[in-house]
Write a structure and sequence with these properties.
By secondary structure, this protein is α/β, with parallel strands linked by helices. It has two domains: about 270 residues, P-loop containing nucleotide triphosphate hydrolases (Rossmann fold, 3-Layer(aba) Sandwich), CATH 3.40.50; about 180 residues, Nucleotidyltransferase, domain 5, CATH 3.30.420. It has an eight-stranded mixed sheet, with helices on both faces. Strands 13-12-9-10-11-14 form a six-stranded mixed sheet, with helices on both faces. Helix 2 packs across helix 3, helix 4 crosses helix 5 and helix 15 packs across helix 17. It is elongated. It starts with a helix and ends in a 13-residue tail after the last helix.
Length: about 475
């Protein structure tokens, strides 16, 4: 019996809905015979001229568009086949692990795990193998455990791995301070693959031109080898039912279409958060860096606090207002930006900033969500009431992007501020989500407070008559 017979046989899984590309890919992992049409698909997805029948790969990397059946078809069927297809010699007390790994083990990896569990329990024959089920593991009577693991090299070490399934590996890099998290975890898993037929399956949508998934693509896609098979395909090829949705994405978001549908890598230099031309257009070099208070305006302020220790972050404050708010040509002006670079006395800085906030008669003051209660308490001691911003930093930057793209923002000609905005990039997270930050810890405190003010001006936390509203 091969993997496709296992999937389609109603005694085991009973799924006859695999697309031709999904079926070809699963066969190719084990070197099972391909039809003429499947060989054509194999050449398209691997860029290899020849298919080697009976060549079983220990390691396979799938680079596929979103909604390609990665978590609902390919990963769970490989997990079940590997967990049940062979007898395994184990030492006393040892268990062979079919390991499902993702950055967010309690969410992302459990999507695949739940597909595995549902298929297993619904199977007339496979369900009889189940000894025990827990929230994140299933014990079988053949000594195999199918289990969800966090994306941590420490957790993976010491495990006897029968099959490693890495879910959305391209999005592992930015999830923790460990810059090469994907490489460390994959390396730890390779040392744990202690059985003759152990498998490593990396399955992911693509992201930037860095990391393990891209390295596999560069080294092994289109290059015939016995080590790693790389299969790359777009969403519609693997899931023809996604065609209508893909066409809509192509019309509405061309960049997402290239990455999420066509499965093309983004050049890392193309991941900047802001278009430099749009930022340049927002700068008014003819105005002073600080605008004088005008009683006709309604001012808002945003601060990003820091402790003042040597080598730490800056403590920044920005103040802004809406110009011509009763017309269609309204502009969001940043009146001033203050920065205290470390080392500094945080109490003295708060005293200075409180005086500025009072001088501009700011009706609402927001603090960064990570600033902590101590800063708002210190401001309160100086008769300045502050609220915590309801959005995290990444969402502030995304909100500011909309303001910049609409041409509403006006910034002073502050070179350090512009440098910080230009350094911000979209960093991948699990599930296709994005985090906005600097790639290697460069300062962005001034950009943070300006983005905070732009967000506040675009969605003012007050009514037209100046009364503060609850947000």
């Amino acid at each position: 019996m091969n993997i496709i017979e296992f999937i389609e046989d109603p005694r085991f899984i009973g799924d006859k809905t695999l697309s031709p590309a999904q079926k070809m890919s699963l066969k190719a992992v084990y070197g099972d015979p391909l039809t003429k049409k499947e060989k054509k698909l194999f050449r398209k997805c691997t860029k290899l001229r020849r298919y080697h029948k009976r060549r079983e790969y220990d390691e396979v990397t799938f680079i596929l568009g979103r909604r390609s059946g990665k978590s609902s078809r390919l990963a769970p069927y490989l997990a079940l086949w590997e967990a049940t297809r062979q007898e395994i010699k184990l030492d006393t007390g040892e268990r062979a692990i079919v390991m499902i790994v993702a950055v967010e083990a309690r969410k992302q990896a459990k999507i695949t795990f739940n597909y595995v569990k549902d298929k297993l329990m619904a199977s007339p024959l496979l369900s009889k193998m189940v000894v025990k089920t827990l929230s994140d593991e299933i014990e079988l009577d053949n000594g195999v455990t199918i289990q969800v693991f966090p994306c941590s090299q420490a957790k993976i070490r010491g495990q006897s791995i029968l099959c490693f399934i890495g879910d959305e590996v391209a999005f592992w890099k930015s999830e923790e301070h460990l810059q090469d998290l994907d490489k460390h975890v994959i390396s730890a898993a390779r040392f744990g693959m202690s059985f003759p037929n152990s498998k490593m399956i990396k399955i992911s949508s693509p992201w930037t031109t860095r990391g393990v998934i891209y390295e596999d693509f560069e080294k092994f896609h289109s290059h015939s080898n016995k080590d790693i098979l790389v299969i790359k395909g777009d969403s519609v090829l693997f899931n023809p039912t996604y065609k209508k949705r893909a066409e809509k994405t192509k019309r509405t978001d061309p960049q997402a279409y290239k990455t999420d549908v066509l499965a093309e890598f983004r050049d890392y230099t193309g991941c900047e958060m802001y278009d430099p031309k749009v930022l340049a257009a927002a700068v008014n070099s003819k105005r002073p860096e600080k605008l004088a208070f005008d009683k006709e305006n309604t001012y808002l302020a945003f601060y990003d606090a820091a402790g003042g220790g040597k080598g730490g972050d800056s403590f920044c404050l920005a103040v802004g207002h809406i110009e011509d708010k009763d017309t269609t040509e309204e502009r969001f002006l940043i009146d001033l930006i203050e920065e205290a670079r470390p080392p500094f006395d945080p109490g003295a800085v708060i005293g200075k900033y409180a005086s500025i906030i009072k001088a501009y008669d700011c009706i609402v003051v927001y603090g960064d969500s990570f600033s902590g209660a101590w800063a708002s308490t210190e401001f309160a001691r100086r008769d300045v009431h502050c609220d915590t911003c309801p959005l995290p930093k990444s969402e502030l930057y995304k909100a500011a992007e909309s303001v910049f793209n609409q041409g509403k923002a006006e910034l002073p000609d502050d070179k350090r501020l512009l440098k910080q905005f230009k350094s911000l990039v979209r960093l991948p997270r699990s599930g296709g989500r994005e985090k906005v930050d600097t790639p290697s810890g460069q300062p962005e405190d001034k950009a943070n407070v300006v983005a905070g003010v732009l967000y506040m001006l675009d969605d003012p936390p007050y009514y037209d008559d100046g009364e503060v509203r609850i947000v």
